[in-house]
UniProtKB/TrEMBL annotation:
Region of interest called Disordered, as start-end residue ranges on this chain: 214-263
Name this protein carries in UniProt: Nitrate reductase molybdenum cofactor assembly chaperone
Residue stretches of biased makeup (Low complexity): 251-263
Gene (name only): narJ
InterPro entries: DMSO/NO3_reduct_chaperone, NO3_reductase_chaperone_NarJ, TorD-like_sf
The organism's taxonomic lineage, starting at the top: Bacteria, Bacillati, Actinomycetota, Actinomycetes, Kitasatosporales
PANTHER family on file: NITRATE REDUCTASE MOLYBDENUM COFACTOR ASSEMBLY CHAPERONE, NITRATE REDUCTASE MOLYBDENUM COFACTOR ASSEMBLY CHAPERONE NARJ
């Protein structure tokens, strides 16, 4: 028997990678359950305003009714904390975790492209993806805001709908790691989401380690190194400080002393 053509292993590897990236074929019931989990994660990652905090009991009931899965157990761990907090404390915690910490911000393209021109192109591509699926966002948020991406995934389904989540998996890993390091219960929400995605590879983990130490790409010149702004936080936008001007090369002659006459 002649040996297999040299191209066969490559084809196998390609098809295996493709199978790992996409979810297994789901029944309609499984697809609906997955969409519900994505929508719950989207809701729980939104700012805890009066409307959301008023719905905490209902959200807790829905999470308890989910089938027993790793995602459901993670969400249950979060809603138990969420339901028992003072609304003002929830607001403060949310702002601290997601608005004041660059490592756990919810804008996904930042982790992949940083503050570069490529990020603008990525945002445009996301908007085009939404429109091609017949979905126009009117939330006022950028298209890469994680709750927006999750809502699209819930509406469009496991294939194309979840593609942006798979593309930004490393950013999601970084957010989860930052929330875990901070001891935030929101880590359970990110963990629930990650259970729906393909497992992280060694390359993914190495890339997240680089993000932690180096930060995302940047086109700014003169920024202090990443990590110089507090406890390992990325340098914030607009942090560039112009250098102090060099002293003049020619020192002017001292003025002639003025003498006073007798009084």
């Amino acid at each position: 028997m002649s040996p297999l053509p040299a191209s066969i292993p490559g084809i196998v590897r390609t098809r295996v990678r493709a199978a790992v990236r996409r979810p297994a074929r789901l029944t309609p019931e499984e697809t609906a359950g997955r969409a519900l989990v994505l929508r719950l994660v989207s809701l729980l990652l939104q700012y805890p305003d009066a409307e959301l905090t008023a719905a905490r009991t209902e959200l807790t009931t829905v999470v308890r009714a989910l089938p027993d899965t790793p995602a459901a157990r993670r969400l249950s761990g979060f809603t138990g904390w969420f339901a028992g907090q003072d609304p003002e404390a929830l607001e403060r915690h949310y702002v601290e975790m997601f608005d004041l910490r660059r490592r756990s911000g919810l804008y996904l393209t930042y982790y992949l492209h940083g503050d570069t021109r490529r990020r603008g192109m990525a945002l445009l591509a996301l908007n085009q993806r939404y429109r091609a699926a017949g979905w126009n966002t009117d939330s006022g948020e950028l298209p890469d805001h994680l709750p927006v991406v999750l809502e699209f995934a819930a509406l469009a389904g496991p294939g194309a709908g979840e593609a942006p989540l798979r593309q930004h998996r490393r950013g999601l890993e970084l957010i989860h790691r930052a929330l875990t390091d901070a001891g935030s219960p929101y880590r359970h929400v990110l963990a629930a989401l990650l259970t729906l995605l393909p497992p992280a590879t060694e390359a993914d983990r190495a890339a997240v380690d680089r993000l932690v130490t180096e930060g995302p790409p940047s086109e700014e010149v003169g920024l202090d190194p990443y990590g110089a702004y507090g406890d390992g936080e990325f340098a914030p936008p607009g942090a560039f400080v112009p250098p102090v001007p060099a002293p003049p090369t020619r020192v002017p002659a001292a003025p002639t002393p003025r003498t006073e006459g007798p009084r």
